[in-house]
Amino acid sequence: IIMAYIVRNVDVLDLKPSTGVGIDLPFNGPTGINTTYTTRDAVKANLLNFILTGKRERVMNPTFGSGVRDLIFEQQTEDLTDQVEDLIVGGVEAYFPQVQINTLNVVQSPDSYTITIYLNYSVINTNIQDELQINLTNGGV
Fold first, then answer.
1. What is the pLDDT of residue 128?
2. Which of 4, 18, 45, 122 is deepest in the core (most CB within 10 A)?
3. pLDDT in tens, 93-105
4. Is residue 84 exposed (0-12), middle (13-18) or buried (19+ Cβ within 10 Å)?
5. Half-sphere exposure of 107 toward its Cβ, with a 13 Å CA cutoff?
């Protein structure tokens, strides 16, 4: 009998719990910077950083960032939801090719001037699956 199975990759850094993998958000650690110690946490922090970064905001990489925050003052319509989804999907495909979006929901709350982004994603060829929820208001995150 031949049995098929899927081989999943484990990042070598995940096998060393004291080795930092990336930078976490927010910047409120003892030195101003917090460290992520797993690939799961690093990917989540990177996606959060991407979604909250505006176009032309990142030095030496002006195309990085979703630009979603620039839309918070726009009139909340179906087109706005589509624009937010397009910015996130296009950016994740361009900057995070190892990340697969499983579910992306953008919910508008016109009464509170809030846009909630719910993103469920997985990292290709790994067992990593996680979710991210961001609430954007016209006063900030």
1. 92
2. 45
3. 999 999 999 999 9
4. buried
5. 11
